[in-house]
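hi! just following up on the protien thing from before. the input was this:
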Amino acid sequence: MTKSFESLGLDDEICAALRERGIETAFPIQSMTIPDILAGRDVCGKARTGSGKTLAFGLPIVQMLERAKPGRPTALALVPTRELATQVRDELTAAAHAKGVSIGAIYGGDPIEKQIKALRSGVDFAVCTPGRAIDLIERGDLSVADVTKVVIDEADRMADMGFLP
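and the predicted 3d structure came back as:
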């Protein structure tokens, strides 16, 4: 049985942003995880590519986001590649905009100065590759002290690459 995003507990602004993109009903992974994430529970989800995992973890986090201080995001997603970092950011941008919060992709291979500038202007939800996140933490340009929500996306691939939480 398909469920509406409203019935899962997502607020009107996010649901309207989804409708504008032609997204009306939730995929199974979204129906199973969104209510638990909104309730503050830890979730471990596994689903195939194209199943809606990004919206499953991202929408409730965007809804619960608190505004960040410069260089101190309140949510962090670790992803294995820069392509996935930009994909996650792009997938969640409309919902973030609807809620008045910002999401930024932080990854190697792109000028670090541009990312530092974005962090200093206030990124609420940082989607990072581990290497660039570590670089920015060591430089003092990124702090995880205010992070209250963490996602490890594609955890199996991250472990294969040597990242162990």
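The mean pLDDT is 94.
The chain is about 45% helix and 10% strand.
cheers
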